[in-house]
Amino acid sequence: MDLEKLLSDRLATAFAAVAGGPVDPLVRRSPRADFQSDAPLALARRLGRPPRDIAAAVLEHAVLDDVCVSAEVSGPGFLNLTIADRTLADLVAGLAADARLGVPLAAAPQTVVVDYSAPNVAKEMHVGHLRSTVIGDAAVRLLDWLGHRVVRVNHLGDWGTPFGMLIAHLADLGEAEAAHELSMGDLDGFYRAARVKFDADEAFRERSRLRVVALQGGDERTLRLWRLLVEQSERYFLTVYDLLDVTLSEDDFRGESAYNDLLPGIVDDLDRLGLLVSSGGADCVFPPGFTGRHGEALPLIVRKSDGGYGYPATDLAALRQRSGELGATRLLYVVGLPQRQHFAMVFAVAQAAGWLCPPVRAEHLGFGSILGADGRMLRSRTGESVKLVGLLEEAVARATDLARSRNPELDAEAAAEIGRAVGIGAVKYADLSTDRRKDYVLDWERMLSLDGNTAPYLQYAYARIRSVFRRAGTEARRDAPIVLAQPAERALTVELLGFGAVVTEVERSLDFHQLAGYLHRLATAFNAFYERCPVLRAPDGLRESRLLLAELTARTLRQGLHLLGIRTLERM
Known about the structure:
- The chain has about 575 residues and is of the alpha/beta class.
- Helix content is about 55%, strand content about 10%.
- The protein contains 21 helices and 13 strands.
- It has a four-stranded antiparallel beta sheet with strand order 1-2-4-3. Strands 6-5-10-11 form a four-stranded parallel beta sheet, with helices on both faces.
- The longest helix has 25 residues.
- The two termini are about 35 Å apart.
């Protein structure tokens, strides 16, 4: 059982008896004991009693003798709880027998749609796509492991007026030449060439406008050229996802074009519901509570004055399709924080229209930016966005060089395997170990360090454990009695028992820095245990116990890192 939940359940009954109603015990880890409850301080004003008196009364009602070796009032009114060694040993023995490490499947599985990555057709993925892809993939992995039905949606930008320009350029080149050029992966070069012609050539601009009309009208040749653009772009995107080691596949692509036929119905329904307002020739909805700089009401433009549809209409159509046709009850949008207001307005309009009602809920998982060493948005030397492939290849190259410098005996294949796992893992972990709402600085030296809160530190801890078992020549006995002879063993056990509580919280919040922080604490506790508690040289009973603690640590690290999308290595 989850140790934190066990204590919370026991204390909740006692707090309810003292307060006369439900109270969250606010149990958390403490540097002064194993756990601490802050609830007496929060209750003091409500009950009009000193917090120390409340804490003492709670202890009188609490049934803790079979769990805690010590439960006492501390400071201004904290409850400090120290767990009995026997309790720790029994609980960790339960973990050893559980393939899921104490983390149960969701009691009420949901259908969850995760909208993430979302590159644009005929444009290369840049560093701005990294966070959405990495955070979204972690969400997919976690929710899938917990037993939810997860639907990945890669919402490609594959429709709109720029495609007239791109299709006209493709037609000028010829399908065979264009396919060859696109297959080389230089999507940005193709796009730039089309843009140069569009800006300089009035005849080309006119052909581009006619291609937009033909595309929207369903002209077969124009659609064929458009599909060529989409297919070649998708092939390129899949190579990036393979390098980044994420779970997105060709089955997950769903472009804006997929919703095109639904857009007139969105406008008609909003009009029928009395939500549509004509403003400046455009069809808009003014959701309450959204105002501009000068207090004016802000519109969500559903259909533009030229009759075209923008992102809001497409997002509304997608939301309705996901909650209706797919039956999803949790909709996750992994998109940068600058789009916060856009999604808030889309969700507000969807609620007003009755398309977003309980139990369906939509969440914008916003995130900050990746910065360079100068504290500004990360850019290439020429001032352009850094290409994602280039960044990932640099990470792998740096990690491979480090692996070779640490172990010159590595053959090329082993060095490449370590380099890829460590380099890509370092990039992902730097992102996921940061509160997603904050910006972070891309610092290669820190990211690839074997010390500190980094992926290589965690990967090395796992590899170190596997080396113990290679030397031992055996695996741990899952039924071995747990013996807590040293403080470092006890500290490691307490950390191992915290995995379930962290996963449960991250399922709710999708704040993956909490899981990363937990894994770092676990690896740190193991390294202290490893230094202070000999494993292979310990007497038989203690040796079996320590091997089991080491194996549980390895299993937890491997599972936790897998949820973050980071590979573990048997050797480093």
